[in-house]
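INFO  loader      accepted 1 record
INFO  loader      residues=114
INFO  predictor   begin
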Amino acid sequence: MVRFFRDQQDCVLWYLYLRANGESFVVHSYRDLEYEAELRSSGTPDDLEQPAEIDDDPDCEIFWCAPTVEIFAYRFWTENSLWFAIHNSRPIEDLSAAQRAYLSGYEPARQERV
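INFO  predictor   done
INFO  writer      dumping tokens
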């Protein structure tokens, strides 16, 4: 696995998972797997306690994210541009056709009645 992207707060890290048969896909994790590998190979017993605790936490697994880097990049860019548009109260008519098409895959938010 090759880390190729991380969020600005180091909460989520994305990796390109390269398989021996030539296939690859994008995964993400809340774990810094490169740091853990370094600890496991050269760390002291005290250093190794942290990865051992993480190994037992199901929230710290590795999750499939996208079949290609290109699809990941498109979704990441689209979702971020939509986040800014929605939080800046842009009318849906001002969104591009591609952005509106992407949004159509989501269910509308339910309005609670008081």
